[in-house]
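Most newcomers find our protein records easier to grasp once they have seen one. A learned vocabulary of local backbone shapes supplies the integers on the structure line. Here is such a record, shown just as it appears in the course material:
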Amino acid sequence: MARGRDDAAQAPESFYVAHQKIYAREVTGRFARLRNIAVVVLLGIYYLVPWIQWEGRQAMLFDLPARKFYIFGITFWPQDFFYMAWLLIIAAISLFFFTAIAGRLWCGYACPQTVWTEAFMWMERLTEGNHTRRRKLDQAPWSTEKVLRKGSKQTLWIAFALWTGITFVGYFSPIRELFGKIATFSLGPWEAFWCLFYGLATYGNAGFLREQVCKYMCPYARFQSAMFDGDTLVISYDEARGEPRGGRKRTLDHKAAGLGDCIDCNMCVQVCPTGIDIRDGLQIECIACAACIDVCDSVMDRMEYPRGLIRYTSDKALKEKRQLRILRPRVMIYGGLLLALFIGFVVSLGIRTPVRLDAIRDRNTLYREVAGGEIENVFSLKLLNLDTRSHRYEISVDGPEGLRLALDSEDLELESGEVRRIPARVMMPRDRLPSAGVEIVFRAQAEDSPGLEAEAESRFLGPAPR
């Protein structure tokens, strides 16, 4: 016996705690309804948008082989990459803005991990029952009922995950053709790989990892504190009102008994998808889903106590007993930047023309004198047709009187997305040259679309006037 105790004393301590599956209790309430609406709307957008047609094509399609990105009536090309950078900046500022106002609002209602996990949990409840039945089913020995329930859940999960992966690929490969290839078993290797890859990622993250993604893998939980301040709205437990906690009958005068409003029912812990106790204070595992608010409000209603023992509030409002302060310098700065970026993006798209023209001077010769006493400059014009259909263009040049343009190519019909380099010579009588360098403007005009034009500024060089 003594040796056994010595061996136990010398056994190394384990610093790893095995993962315990969380059986979150179902909850109803205003925030639960908001989450359900967000799940339906966001999943509806994701799965339905690829099927929308626009002018005979898929409304939203990122056609990588053709280097065209269609977003309804707008076509983006690789040359428009700065718009993508612009959108990423808007997304980052939006995250800062909403986090400064209401903490992890994104995590609780709109994060793909949250949305797909909620959908997978719906299917789990449908096949295995509520949280109590799920726990009992997992602990029970294998039986016909357990095989049927587990099998039906896995069937729904796998089908939904595959549908998710196929839909994702459908944003890059026309989804109608994609489903046709799947039906005829003619899917290409890369398309098949990405369908299975994203399907497996959805299945693993939403079906099994769930809260572990939020707790251990998501970087947002780690740097969110940099965007918080004392006035940021977070889900908090009112300790001054709730303590000391303890069980009691509804008819008991708990104030006279020296008890707070918290009846220590642990319902807030049972409904938490990450398994934390919000009464221990703000934790990085909290995804601000507000399930604890809904269930606590329902308990307060039954006990005939005021709602709000757990609520959205700020640290300063809770500790200093003052009103919430939403508008503050940080929020206004983020909001102003976000508004300016959004307006600039919309205006830039509005004035964007699907044709571009660049004028590149021949670096070997600045200018040369040709027969007839004229000065000649040589340029290479790069014309890019970014429209969705072909156009024939006419190129001209504006500048001082006597300026003349000669093109080496007369066939200026460009297909959609075509880039054409056009050698050009610009000439001017030497006696009409006002200075050693004058501004000139090249202009490309579509013959069948008067509003489709582009300009490129350059300089015409020559000898100094005599």
Notes: Residues 144-169 form the longest helix (26 residues).
